[in-house]
Amino acid sequence: MHPAVMDLQSDLLKGHLSRREFLRLATLLGASIAAANMLAGCGSSQTGSAPTDSAAAVQRGGTLKIGSRVLPVDHPARLATLESGNQLRQVGEYLTATNQENITQPWLLDQWEVDEAVKTWTLRLRQGITFNNGQPLTVDDVIFSFNQWLDPDIGSSMVSLLYYLDKTGIERVDDYTVRLHLNEPQIGVPEHLFHYPAIILPRTFEGNFIEQPVGTGPFTLESFVEGDRAVFKRRADYWRTGADNEALPYLDELTYFDLEPDERIEAMQAGVIDTLILPAAEEWDALKTAPGISVYGVSTARGQVVRMNVTKPPWNDVRVRNALKLCQDRQKILDFAHLNQGDLAIDAHVAPIHPAYCEKPIPSYQPEQAKALLAEAGYPDGLTVQLTAKNDTEETQIANMLKELAAPGGFNIELNMVAPAKYWEQWTELDLGITSWGHRPLDTMALALAYTADENGQPVSWNETHWVDPDFIKILRQAEQTLDVEKRRQMMCQLEDIMQERGPVGLSYWAKNWNIIRSEFKNVRANPEGYDLFYDVWKDGNSI
Fold it and tell me: Quick one: which H or E segment has residue 444?
């Protein structure tokens, strides 16, 4: 066991660490859930494990129909939307998984070990797993996948997340063991391996997953029609088993239907679909008491980020950026766009749910101060800007509310509402936009993905604002190496201050997430990342 686990136990006993945070950190350092629970004084209970119904109650068969965008997809390493990630996740799987309690556990891995310096990670694969084409999963497939993620020509966001690793640091130990020699310490390796582009691919993969849908997951891809639907069929030889070792998955089929935002409530009510991807607050409100529908909720670090490209005027002027931030009445925006179902945010990409979040006062709405900053920046008569956002419900409401709130601050905001596919085609190059950023379990993860630079000082692939601040990056890299939560919180305080003072984003709230699904579907849980994990979901009375 890593020696730091005992230090964490000491912090837990002294009240410096919560039980959940102890379990999260202890398991990251290679302790099993059972061992971590024992050290936490909780016996051998499987805290955070998936809910299970008795084997006698489980029924097989049936189709789960899901309301979701069906967007263009090619290489999984380039995934940039939760919807596409959820669809490919039914076929491809990950080395690790972070559950609904924010605890990361082995998935395709059997276990991992880390040295005292947190620089050498040994990953041990489960044996006996095959891809859906019959090919055995070995460490060669894992190394191939790592090399795909780290190839700059692929264009994966994993490059910025795994900045601490290069291809020469990947050591093949044997058929089922790979050792990662990091360039510097990193505490978040297991959590990074559940980032949704990190699907493990066969070493025979040629670049397009729709044309070559080979994975280790519980379903196989039957058909994929962009803008219409994606159909997945039960895989008969899936490696994972349920209670009493019965074969998984239980469902016969998953169908993702591409629906417009204004179609989804009616589709649920009419029985066209059984569940929704990332329900909007209006959908939750309309369906929360509907007969035959169950709602599972969870707090998240999912936010709608008002992002400004600092390479393009007027957003290259920090005074203009800060002026727009001052035009957020955060409570009004949360009430209007998400029915007060979430946590108010500061203008930094760190949420209260994160372990090292540094609590700061919520900035107030100050349109007069915004107007003064615009005048100081050379816009005494105000400024006309274009805001581009997806025409999904939440973004549309935020955009309209911000347009109204910013007018007294001197901004004339012209709205350009576009289809999701159109937004994702241009999201890293827009002057001003609203980007939906999903939940990340660790406070440093989104910061590394969205606000850092490569070795040449150029913005990483998901740095949509093109903001590169050397002081910010230096402190972030220190935080990524720091196990001690209180020490990391001090660094997070500095990072949050830098983002608020000169950063490129405005954030009004962190959204609550729900899993809204027909009640006949069992073994359902709400995932803060919005990930669809259906391998052990079953349908009661599926013959109806």
Answer: none
Q: Is the pLDDT of residue 446 over 60?
A: yes
User: What pLDDT shows up at residue 299?
Assistant: 87
pLDDT for residue 543 is more than 60: no
The CA–CA distances, whole Å, from 127 to 8, 113, 136, 139 equal 31, 17, 9, 10
Select from 132, 111, 253 the least CA-distant residue to 199.
132
Predicted local confidence at residue 54, as pLDDT: 47
Is 313 part of any domain? yes
- Is 150 strand, coil or helix? helix
* Domain containing residue 43: 1-47
Q: How confident is the model at residue 21 (pLDDT cuts 50, 70, 90)?
A: confident
Instruction: Please answer whether residues 428 and 461 qualify as being in contact, where contact means their C-beta atoms are separated by less than 8 angstroms.
Output: yes
C-beta neighbour count of 272 within 10 angstroms: 14
Beta bridge partners of 104: 98
Residues 6+ apart with CB under 8 A from 135: 202, 204, 214
pTM assigned to the model? 0.84
Contact indicator for 194, 104 with CB cutoff of 8 Å: yes
Chain centroid to CA 477: 20
Q: Is residue 476 part of a domain?
A: yes
Contacts 24+ apart (CB under 8 A), 227-231: 227/70, 227/258, 227/421, 228/70, 228/257, 228/258, 229/70, 229/255, 229/256, 229/257, 229/258, 230/70, 230/87, 230/255, 230/256, 231/255, 231/256
User: Which stretch of 79-88, 205-214, 216-225 has the lowest confidence by average pLDDT?
Assistant: 79-88
How buried is residue 161: exposed, middle or buried, by Cβ count under 10 Å (0-12/13-18/19+)?
A: buried
**pLDDT tens per residue, range 301-347:** 999 999 999 999 999 999 999 999 999 999 999 999 999 999 999 99
Number of domains in the chain: 2
Cis bond before residue 152 (omega within 30° of 0): no
- Tell me, yes or no, whether 402 lies in a domain: yes
**Domain for residue 262, yes or no?**
no
Residue 171 has φ and ψ, to the nearest 5°, of -110, 125
Kindly report, residue by residue over 362-409, the tens digit of the pLDDT.
999 999 999 999 999 999 999 999 999 999 879 999 999 999 999 999
In 328-407, which residue ranges form alpha helices assigned H by DSSP?
330-338, 367-376, 393-406
Q: What is the DSSP letter of 461?
A: T
Residue 374 neighbours by CB under 8 Å, 6+ apart: 319, 320, 323, 380, 382, 383, 409, 410, 411
The two three-digit tokens of residue 524, written as one number: 């359902």
Q: How far is CA 33 from the centre of its chain?
A: 23
Cβ burial of 456 (10 Å; 0-12, 13-18, 19+) is: exposed
